[in-house]
């Protein structure tokens, strides 16, 4: 991929809650204004908007609310949380090519007080679309929740590598430990022990309640512009060193059970390969990573797919404290979606920016490059964000 | 007691109305040697979709006969009873018979009979009988 | 049995003519008459005064339950109608003719003739057949004293429709063959009609040779659990928790998702052999499921 000329110049968010008490559009507008204020840009200077296909707030509606005028670029990315980093990728391509000068990426929802993704949707298989047909091989059997879809992969992974529920639990314990010292996190001040994890009820064996991320109300917005312009704005820019989307052979939406192997995430491998090739970096160059953690098992898989450890070695990596603050690769210093909030991965991108600015609640020392991933088990995306070299 | 010369076509029979107490339903079923549970066991009857125990057919025939002989008297000879069966006659309901003479021919008297319950016609039909020419 | 076969059977039963039944257990007697009159509230004195039975009692004298294995024409016909789904029964006509009043002391013997079956007919109760038979009661040396024509409607009760199963698959022209197969008790795997490649889930075009000519093979119905989950929470519409969903690997070389049933969830394991079975989920949908198989 051609080098991008893009940076994240501003981040904004609402509070993260279980009941925002406001409409999703209002959440979106608040987050967009906060991000623009952070960047020091006015709404009138925005000419691009990107969001998720799943977002209920159309770009034009958000533009009307915050007083954005002419838009020369708008796009949406599909596949649930897999869209998160791709919104930045699309925005970065737009500013690099000149399609837009300043693009805001946003995601806003009342995912806890409104429609909850964790709840079964019996109509999933009812659509006469390719996705409806795909779901029709799974939903009729009651395989209808994200936790159960992921649990099917997790069982095979545990079986193949001799990992255990405790190995999954250690991921949750680390995320909650990080969240405990992040005032913005829902689980601020509420760490858990491995015993707590093991005592939590089954959701879809082998996943327990504490293997599943929370459900949140809230919104996050990110302002993307060219790296050069970002340097002139209010905040230290987070340069988009690499951005990639990825889908693998035999890809399905959460149910890619028909590939030769079920222990990996080939789509994340597609993302990782591009990120490393474009950036010229290696895993050793990453000081902290934001790995999408809607469910614990795929954190292990991502460590392997991105090359932070070998196949089947992630459980040992985590057991040794590798993903904790002070470990080999601190993962999700903000507490991730298990600990901070589930804003479909967008809050993790904001955390990566804070780590590069040196303003994070749980600041990792000497952060120069942060790797960020988006939703797992679906077509996904990733970023490497870097600090500005002096 | 009626004689042939006392009846004419169109003559009405006095109405007979019976309270279908559970006792009536059960005792008539047993007196007709019909031990089918739906005629004496409420739970079984309800289990089969009925709202209660109900009259058996042999009793319906017996009551139609009684209705006509109550009117015609002991010298009447019943030759034929044709009944078309309708809605069930449940315990707790009331069965009311009405009737009238519909034909006089070849020495036979034909009486039309209808037995109604709250749900509609339980039995409709005709009873054919002989009446004495004169008082014995 | 089809409607025509039922009518054929009825014709055969009718051709058997009148068949004598067992004589009454007791002769016509005063206690039963007295009991009957009391129950009916019939105060007509003529019966007890003259030793006569009320004529409508004709059937009462021979009301014995049919012996087990009774193969009378009426029983045969009723059994066949039951089996054909006409399980409901309601009497529609009872016509009794009395040649004379019977006297105390006489022993009655019934004889039955199946006279006909009519239908199928649409009725308020459902589709059904009207079955008619005639019973004649004989006294002494074969003297007919009473006759009864009896007609019943044997009907197919309106089906109680099962609650529709909420987790319905979409079916289209690419996938209908699979669901058609399931309804016939076949587990069908799509095969390319040109290159033979097997594929599940199916699709409109062979990913290997791009042929749109599709066929299918019928899988042996055996498999091995490749992975599985035990779903506990949240509640799933149409399902009782916990339940098991597995990815099953078939010897034919494809995988398929389905429920593992008929065993405790804790007995399921990766590598467990399973066999396909078919479960109706409501009046329309059948799902293939997997039961523990022989290793």
Outline the structure in words.
The complex is a heterotrimer of chains A (390), B (136) and C (295). In chain A, 34% of the residues lie in helices and 17% in strands. By secondary structure, chain A is an alpha/beta fold. In chain A, strands 3-2-4-7-1-8-11-10-9 form a nine-stranded mixed β-sheet. Chain B has one domain: Hotdog Thioesterase (Thiol Ester Dehydrase, Chain A), CATH 3.10.129. The model of chain B has no long low-confidence stretch (mean pLDDT 93). In chain B, strand 4 (108-117) and strand 5 form a beta hairpin. With 295 residues, chain C is an alpha+beta fold. In chain C, helix 1 (3-15) runs antiparallel to helix 4 (73-83). Chain C is 16% helix and 36% strand. Chain C starts with a helix and ends with a strand.
Quick summary:
Chain B has 136 residues and is an alpha+beta fold. Chain B is built from three helices and five strands, in the order βαααββββ.
Task: Describe this protein with a few key phrases.
heterotrimer; A: 390 residues; alpha/beta; Peroxisomal Thiolase, Chain A, domain 1; nine-stranded mixed β-sheet; two-stranded antiparallel sheet; 13 helices; globular; C: 295 residues; alpha+beta; Thiol Ester Dehydrase, Chain A; OB fold (Dihydrolipoamide Acetyltransferase, E2P); 2 domains; five-stranded antiparallel β-sheet; five-stranded mixed β-barrel; 5 helices; elongated
């Amino acid at each position: 991929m051609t080098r991008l000329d893009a940076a994240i110049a501003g981040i904004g968010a609402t509070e993260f809650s279980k009941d925002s008490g406001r409409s999703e559009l209002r959440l979106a507008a608040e987050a967009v204004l906060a991000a623009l204020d952070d960047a020091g840009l006015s709404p009138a200077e925005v000419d691009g908007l990107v969001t998720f296909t799943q977002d209920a707030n159309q770009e034009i509606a958000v533009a009307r609310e915050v007083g954005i005028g002419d838009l020369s670029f708008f796009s949406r990315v599909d596949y649930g949380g897999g869209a998160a980093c791709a919104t930045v990728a699309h925005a970065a391509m737009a500013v690099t090519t000149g399609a837009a000068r300043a693009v805001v990426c946003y995601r806003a929802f009342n995912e806890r007080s409104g429609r909850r993704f964790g709840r079964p949707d019996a109509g999933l298989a009812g659509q006469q679309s390719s996705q409806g047909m795909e779901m029709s091989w799974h939903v009729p059997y009651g395989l209808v929740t994200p936790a159960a879809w992921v649990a099917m992969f997790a069982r095979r992974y545990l079986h193949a590598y001799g990992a255990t529920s405790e190995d999954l639990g250690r991921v949750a314990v680390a995320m909650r430990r990080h969240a405990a010292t992040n005032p913005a996190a829902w689980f601020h001040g509420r760490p858990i022990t491995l015993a707590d994890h093991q005592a939590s009820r089954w959701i879809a064996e082998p996943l327990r309640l504490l293997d599943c991320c929370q459900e949140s109300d809230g919104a996050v917005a990110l302002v993307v512009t060219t790296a050069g312009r970002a340097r002139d704005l209010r905040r230290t820019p987070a340069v988009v060193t690499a951005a990639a989307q990825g889908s693998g052979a035999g890809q399905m939406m959460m149910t890619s059970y028909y590939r030769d192997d079920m222990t990996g995430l080939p789509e994340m491998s597609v993302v990782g390969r591009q990120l490393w090739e474009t950036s010229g970096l290696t895993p050793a160059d990453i000081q902290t990573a934001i790995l999408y953690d809607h469910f614990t098992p795929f954190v292990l898989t991502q460590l392997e797919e991105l090359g932070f450890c070998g196949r089947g070695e992630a459980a040992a990596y985590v057991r040794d404290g590798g993903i904790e603050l002070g470990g080999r690769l601190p993962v999700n210093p903000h507490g991730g979606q298990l600990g901070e909030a589930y804003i479909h991965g967008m809050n993790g991108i904001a955390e990566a920016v804070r780590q590069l600015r040196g303003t994070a609640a749980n600041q990792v020392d000497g952060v120069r490059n942060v790797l960020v991933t988006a939703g797992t088990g679906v077509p996904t995306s990733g970023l490497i964000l870097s600090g500005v070299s002096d | 007691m009626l004689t042939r010369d006392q009846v004419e076509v169109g003559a009405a029979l006095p109405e007979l109305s019976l309270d279908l107490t559970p006792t009536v339903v059960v005792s008539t079923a047993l007196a007709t040697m019909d031990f089918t549970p739906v005629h004496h066991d409420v739970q079984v009857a309800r289990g089969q979709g009925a709202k209660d125990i109900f009259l058996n057919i042999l009793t319906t025939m017996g009551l139609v006969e009684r209705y006509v002989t109550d009117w015609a008297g002991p010298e009447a000879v019943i030759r034929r009873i044709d009944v078309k069966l309708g809605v069930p006659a449940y315990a707790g309901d009331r069965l009311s018979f009405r009737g009238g003479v519909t034909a006089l021919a070849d020495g036979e008297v034909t009486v039309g009979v209808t037995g109604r319950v709250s749900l509609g016609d339980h039995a409709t039909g005709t009873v054919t009988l002989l009446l004495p020419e004169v008082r014995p | 049995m089809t409607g025509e076969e039922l009518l054929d059977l009825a014709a055969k039963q009718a051709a058997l003519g009148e068949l004598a039944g067992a004589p009454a257990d007791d002769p016509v007697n005063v206690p039963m008459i007295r009991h009957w009159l009391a129950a009916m509230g019939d105060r007509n004195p003529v019966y007890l005064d003259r030793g006569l039975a009320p004529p409508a009692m004709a059937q009462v004298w021979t009301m014995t339950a049919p012996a087990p294995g009774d193969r009378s024409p009426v029983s045969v016909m009723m059994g066949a109608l039951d089996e054909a789904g006409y399980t409901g029964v309601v009497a529609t006509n009872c016509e009794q003719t009395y040649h004379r009043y019977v006297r105390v002391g006489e022993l009655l013997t019934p004889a039955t003739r199946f006279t006909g079956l009519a239908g199928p007919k649409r009725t308020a109760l459902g589709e059904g057949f009207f079955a008619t038979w005639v019973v004649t009661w004989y006294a002494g040396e074969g003297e007919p004293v009473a006759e009864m024509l009896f007609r019943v409607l044997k009907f197919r009760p309106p089906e109680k429709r099962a609650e529709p199963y909420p987790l319905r698959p979409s079916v289209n022209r690419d996938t209908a063959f699979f669901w058609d197969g399931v309804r016939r008790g076949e587990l069908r795997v799509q095969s390319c009609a040109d290159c033979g490649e097997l594929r599940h889930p199916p699709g409109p075009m062979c990913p290997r040779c791009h042929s749109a000519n599709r066929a299918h093979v019928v899988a042996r119905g055996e498999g091995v659990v490749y992975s599985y989950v035990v779903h506990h929470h949240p509640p799933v519409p149409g399902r009782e928790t916990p339940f098991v969903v597995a990815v099953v690997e078939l010897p034919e070389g494809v995988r398929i998702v389905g429920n593992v049933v008929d065993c405790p969830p804790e007995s399921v394991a990766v590598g467990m052999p399973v066999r396909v079975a078919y479960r109706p989920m409501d009046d329309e949908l059948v799902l293939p499921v997997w039961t523990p198989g022989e290793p």
